[in-house]
Design a protein that fits this description.
heterodimer, A: mainly alpha, two-stranded antiparallel sheet, B: mainly alpha, two-stranded antiparallel ribbon
């Protein structure tokens, strides 16, 4: 019996079903909830591992559901989907462990984990989407599933942040939907094809294609936090740390960036987009976002706000990679999907640790935190150095490929953007490291909880950032080894450019 | 056996986190040993390919690298003795040892690297780790020195990054050093900028006097001895030497080198801190290196001689400079004071290039390149530089010589410092640090033996003329000033001459202030624009109470949702 058509569906359901079941559990059934979560996460890892092996050997996995003639929900796996799915799956497992520890003694945990699981299924659905309509459907499910997470705490700030989030993402969703439907009326059902399929369409439609691109970009740009659509991101920092980690590393922001990559490569085709002049616009937007995000991050004292603006800036590297024509820049942008995810999630985990263990929410309160929590601060240091682009952490590999791709394509201004943003990153990350490691700690921390007798904080809070920091270093050190993110991104680029 | 090459880099990396613990601080001593072992045991062309590491790494030797590795390992080993013994177990020394070993690992990696990415990784690691070395053990002066150092190092690293990117564009993603690449103006400029900052070429030098003045003795020794030579190695590897003559670039290098060579000597003569005198001496030597490189670019046929001369000069300078800094750190040892002073004078003579010293040998080997274009003005400038260098060293000796009539004890010696704040003592002085002294004497022996082992007798009398002239200028001056009774005359003013960073800082502060004002304005505008949008929500208000309220309760809604979804799924599955 051929199980191939059911694999993508199974991967989506492997977190959706536990999510639904968790809703039905009472608040007190702590063990059953943890069991369901871990079971779902581990099952997903096994299935995704199977899929990676299969895609590497050229198998085709496709689940198809005809809703009505002309509208099909298609879940299919190609090399690019697998990149995002693998990232989501691994980081979901780590974040689940972290969230279990973080929300210890918090109310409404069943509600939280239920929506958490739905959020991940929506992300995986986005990754595996085989055509634009499926993508849009799961994109909207993601919006709805993440709203309760942002509003989880129930405080007036949380409500406000969630409302802003919803306003931005729903407006974006509408634009995306209009764009997708318009495109479908012009060229029919749009499966994502490597190399894009709009290049073959008649010349008369090109004007409409350009407008549609802007609509799609606006819709995707909200989630991807392109300036000026990024306003929701710093406001959404009121969410608990696991949510910030998930939103900023895996689900929402990456979904937007992933969508942009899909549209440029698998709907329009990168050469066609270049001919229409769309890549230049994307490049300018991405560059503006990178610089603007970094400058805003300089002036933030709140740690999570600073990391939020850093995310705004860093995710646009992916768009920047997509906007330069040439395989090397493509590789740089794609591999940054993974690298930025791992590094940012480390930083947010550490921020959550500082908040939970010491009550430290601001950079100015972080004096001497390296003495009190050395492992967490070490993980933070690794993440920060990666963001700046210091080897051998993974961020260096991205910058190398982006820079090399830009030099090969003759787009030297991109190198300038990389330089300026590296300096700005150094300007807002290195002072944090200085404070943490070289200043003496204060007499009393703002609100210290002793969460563990032997370790600096609870194990479920300590291990996730250490593991992801290690992954960030390994992803950089072993970048040339088989099955590294870089090798996978190279595979995608090869298949995309048809070489 | 080539695995030993990997151990050279891996040993300090792995020992670094362990050496934080005070009981394990002896690991610092054995960390440079694999490097010396590799030099002794491995064949001269050993290589190790690691295609799975980073973007594909390779480590290996060649003639130049072996010499660099030798003197680098020596400098680090001897400084390590001081780190373990003198810095001891005071708070913050764990962090110092960690960064010391990380910087060592970076330094060794970049020397052994046979491709650009590995070189860059080592360079970045070394540069960043050294920041923490300058900062120890704290204080305003050191923080400022550290800030200037870090800012300039980052700019240097990014310049090197872009230079390597541009080179990789023509040669694919990775390539093997040191096949000299085709010359490209942008690349040469970036290399000049990036490595010039590291070497301390004027006008990229402001961080150097600050850092050398602030860092503790072992850190200053490795900074000046080993780390600044990295720039020379980078230039030797990456500049298009020995291929085609580049007249404009060659002249540019010559002029830049000459400016550094002469101006630094001048500025150094008026310093009041012996460490800053040494710093300016380093800057002037960096100028000499760039001058030699420029002459090689003008006359590619001289490249083998030139590269050999530069390497020898680098080895001599590394040993002598680090010896001087280590010696300055040993100045306050009671019974050994005259010995230390004598050793410092010997090293100063070597640095000035007195006959029979390593400096003279290095000058002798470099002579063919220096006289190659046959320009009179160059020869005159070099003669002037030789005299000035000797005078500079005389100034140095003057500064370390105790004032007449003052009895020195370990307590009464107030270290010379830049600001009026007392310099934080490095550690409560332990029992007599015999090992640091022994290591330093070993270094003296190496420096003394250098010319006799490596040079020919014809090299010995080099520079005799320059030294004579310098002596004739300096001796009467010294005697004249000495004759003033102790206590008369003005008290020595603390001077910060030549600190160019002072010029830049107000500009940066003004920029920061302007940026904040602008952004404050921008933020206010954005908030004002957003406020009506948020206000819209409030105006709509909550919906009126209605009978649908029970339907909106979660359990009802949830059950309805589940029920409807199941129904839809059933319908979809049943319909053909």
């Amino acid at each position: 019996m051929n199980l191939d058509p059911y694999l993508p569906l199974a991967i989506v359901l492997s977190s959706a079903l536990p999510g639904v079941l968790i809703f039905l559990l009472g608040e007190e059934s702590h063990w059953r909830r943890t069991l369901l979560n871990m079971f779902g996460a581990l099952l997903k890892i096994v299935l995704v591992g199977w899929m990676i092996w299969g895609v590497f050997h050229g198998h085709v996995y496709e689940s198809r559901l005809t809703l009505m003639p002309g509208l099909e929900l298609v879940l299919s796996a190609d090399a690019l989907s697998v990149l995002f799915v693998a990232l989501s799956t691994v980081l979901w497992l780590v974040t689940t462990i972290y969230a279990i520890g973080y929300l210890e003694h918090s109310p409404n945990r069943s509600r939280f984990f239920g929506f958490f699981s739905l959020c991940v299924s929506a992300t995986v659905g986005i990754a595996l989407a085989g055509n634009l309509m499926t993508f849009v459907v799961f994109y909207e499910i993601l919006t709805l599933a993440t709203y309760p997470l942002v509003a989880h705490r129930g405080t007036p700030d949380a409500d406000h942040g969630a409302k802003v989030y919803l306003a931005y993402t729903m407006s974006g969703g509408v634009l995306l939907f209009v764009g997708a439907v318009w495109l479908q009326t012009l060229v029919g059902q749009l499966a994502f094809t490597q190399g894009g399929l709009l290049g073959a369409a008649p010349e008369a439609l090109h004007g409409q294609f350009i407008v549609i691109f802007f609509l799609l970009l606006a819709g995707l740009g909200v989630k991807a936090a392109l300036v000026p659509l990024h306003g929701w991101l710093p406001q959404a920092m009121v969410a608990p740390a696991p949510v910030s980690a998930l939103l900023h590393a895996v689900a929402v922001v990456k979904a937007g960036a992933f969508g942009i990559v899909r549209v440029v490569y698998d709907v329009y085709g990168v050469e066609f987009a270049h001919d229409l002049g769309l890549l230049t616009v994307l490049g300018v937007l991405a560059a503006t976002t990178i610089i603007y995000g970094s400058i805003k991050a300089l002036s933030q004292d709140g740690l999570k706000k600073r990391l939020a603006y850093s995310t705004v800036s860093q995710v646009s590297y992916i768009a920047l990679g997509a906007s330069v024509l040439g395989p090397i820049a493509t590789i740089g942008g794609l591999v940054h999907l993974v690298h930025q995810g791992i590094m940012k999630i480390t930083l947010f985990f550490c921020a959550g640790n500082y908040a939970e263990t010491l009550g430290v929410h601001k950079v100015s309160e972080m004096n001497g935190v390296g003495q009190r929590m050395p492992w967490t601060t070490l993980a933070f240091t690794v993440g920060a150095l990666g963001m700046i682009g210091i080897p051998p952490v993974a961020g260096f590999v991205t910058k190398w490929y982006l820079g090399l791709g830009a030099a090969s394509a003759g787009a030297y201004w991109v190198i300038g953007v990389l330089l300026v943003s590296s300096l700005l990153n150094a300007a807002y990350f290195l002072p944090i490291l200085y404070r943490a490691w070289f200043r003496p700690p204060p007499e009393h921390w703002p609100k210290e909880h002793v969460l563990s007798k032997r370790l600096e904080t609870a194990p479920s809070l300590l291990w996730p950032p250490v593991v992801t920091a290690l992954l960030a270093v390994v992803a950089g050190l072993l970048a040339a080894a088989p099955f590294s993110p870089l090798e996978w991104a190279t595979l995608i680029a090869e298949r995309e450019y048809g070489r | 056996m080539s695995g030993l090459l990997l151990a050279v880099v891996l040993a300090p990396l792995l020992f670094a986190p362990l050496a934080v613990h005070p009981a394990l601080r002896w690991l610092v001593l054995i960390a440079p040993l694999p490097a010396l072992a590799a030099l002794a045991l491995l064949p001269p062309d050993a290589t190790l390919e690691l295609p799975w590491l980073l973007l594909g790494t390779a480590l290996g030797f060649d003639e130049t690298t072996r010499v660099f590795l030798l003197f680098t390992a020596l400098v680090w080993s001897l400084a390590a003795v001081s780190v373990v013994e003198r810095l001891g177990t005071a708070p913050g020394t764990g962090r110092f040892r960690l960064l010391f070993l990380l910087a060592l690992a970076g330094n060794l990696w970049l020397i052994l690297a046979r491709e650009p990415v590995g070189f860059y990784v080592g360079f970045a690691l070394m540069g960043l780790a050294a920041y923490g070395l300058i900062l120890h053990p704290g204080g305003l002066t050191r923080r400022r020195a550290g800030r200037v150092y870090l800012a300039m190092t980052l700019i240097g690293e990014l310049s090197l990054f872009v230079a390597l990117l541009l080179m990789a564009r023509t040669q694919g993603v990775t390539w093997n050093l040191p096949e000299t690449p085709t010359p490209d103006g942008a690349v040469i400029t970036l290399l000049l900028l990036g490595f010039g900052i590291k070497a301390g070429l004027m006008p990229l030098h402001p961080w150097l006097p600050l850092a050398y003045g602030a860092a503790p003795a072992p850190a200053a020794a490795v900074l000046s001895g080993a780390m600044s030579k990295v720039a020379l190695l980078g230039w030797l590897r990456l500049l298009p030497l020995g291929q085609v003559a580049l007249p404009e670039w060659g002249m540019l290098f010559v002029w830049l080198g000459l400016v550094s060579l002469l101006v630094a000597l001048g500025v150094g003569l008026v310093q009041t801190d012996p460490r800053r005198v040494l710093a300016y001496s380093s800057i002037s030597k960096a100028g000499l290196f760039v001058l030699l490189l420029g002459l090689l670019l003008l006359e590619p046929a001289l490249t083998p001689v030139g590269v050999g001369a530069l390497t020898l000069y680098a080895a001599h300078h590394a040993l002598v400079k680090s010896g001087l800094f280590l010696g300055l750190g040993l100045r306050d040892l009671d019974p050994a004071r005259p010995l230390v002073r004598a050793g410092l004078i010997l090293l100063a003579l070597a640095l000035a290039g007195a006959p029979l010293t390593s400096g003279a040998l290095a000058k002798y080997v470099a002579k063919p390149v220096l006289v190659s274009p046959g320009w009179i003005w160059l020869d005159l400038a070099l003669m002037l530089a030789a005299v000035a260098a000797a005078l500079l060293m005389a100034r140095f000796v003057w500064l370390i010589w105790p004032a007449p009539g003052v009895v020195e004890t370990a307590r009464s010696r107030t270290p010379v410092h830049d600001f009026q704040e007392p310099q934080t003592p490095i550690a409560p002085l332990p029992a007599f640090p015999i090992w640091s002294l022994a290591a330093w004497i070993l270094l003296l022996g190496l420096v003394a033996g250098f010319p006799f082992v490596l040079g020919e007798p014809s090299a010995w009398p080099t520079n005799a003329g320059a030294m004579l002239v310098a002596g004739l200028i300096a001796a009467p001056l010294a005697l004249a000033i000495r004759h003033r009774a102790p206590g008369s005359g003005r008290p020595a003013r603390q001077r910060r001459l030549g600190d160019l960073a002072v010029l830049v800082e107000p500009i940066l502060t003004a920029q920061l202030w302007a940026g904040r004002a602008l952004f404050g304005r921008w933020n206010a505008t954005v908030e004002a624009a957003r406020a009506p949008l948020y206000g819209l929500g409030k105006r709509v208000g909550p919906p009126p109470p209605d009978p649908e309220r029970t339907l909106r309760a979660w359990p009802t809604a949830g059950r309805l949702w589940l029920g409807v979804t199941l129904l839809l799924l059933l319908l979809v599955l049943i319909t053909p």
